């Protein structure tokens, strides 16, 4: 049976995400990101189109590697100005009934005790439709602005992340028993203290002795996304994630990523097929091939090479201002982002990418492919990518967010549905239930469902 194709919308609470020059396009209304109406309109469009979720990226810092300062990022609008993605969740939840809401938060700079409460609150307000994209961060500017000289090393960030997950699992899954909340007006008992437990966590990075402040939300633990591409990141994703993201310019790169994360999941004792994998892509379409190609040519005229190099420099930690545009690039192992250049080099081993070619490629839709054509041509390509790589769906980037997503909903969704490869039918329940076809809680084999706390039977004693 052919694999169903899934869509997420890859967005960011900023005027420019991964097509940094396109805010200059005459049809761009990117400044509307500051208004509630923009996010309501986008969310309702995605829900109508049967998207799994709106996926909100984030960075806690500025791209200041290029020319050793933030001037280029500010001048070209490279993911700055940038607002908080979590603040959008209640707005989107109120405007929709089934769309998932994935939010990015860097655990390196969020204390697990307060963060657990924030996510439980959002899960309550959305009826269990919240997902968390677990990131460790990659910008030194974020570390500096939070009082650190620089961020932790790449692998140590994941060591910290493993303990962080242990803490939030304890808070979400073990602190409050099922049935702890009574709401008994006759006996004047809201919560049974004997069924609420302090987690008594004391580890290398965190000490959290108390209990979770929130009563259990519909999912308890939010649906878990992750996008680590390094070997250490893939192991982390295999252990914790329920869905992961792969970025690569070719099927070969994406397939290697899919195979690696599923093999790592198997090694963790998890069902590898239960781990959803989304590949990044930009779809450029229209009613006809000529219309789609004209739109792509129009978009390409607005690609900003310096803005793209600012983005690439931040991803890799390499200041590309030091290189001529016609220089070839090589994979450089840095703590900032180990996969950005590697994926380009691996996409076509016989090709030497120049700095200019890399900038022009990532300057429109980031590190995924551009899939262009009329509805039938695009559907053919999407099917081919899914069938050849083993991915489950696409994290769809954009050039013009509302326009591109509208065209996907109007043209691509009906064509894929006609082929039996897409399901836009209304679905209810929690995000975990919608995506995995299971109950709202973590699967029994997930490490979060197996976490234990000290003295779990000794609840808070009544006064």
From TrEMBL:
FMN binds at residues 58, 104, 154, 158, 230. Residues 423-463 are annotated as: Disordered. InterPro entries: Diverse_substr_monoxygenases, Luciferase-like_dom, Luciferase-like_sf, NTA_MOA. Residues 426-445 have a biased composition (Low complexity). Signal peptide: none annotated. Residues 26-392 form the Luciferase-like domain. This is Nitrilotriacetate monooxygenase family FMN-dependent oxidoreductase. It comes from Massilia timonae CCUG 45783.
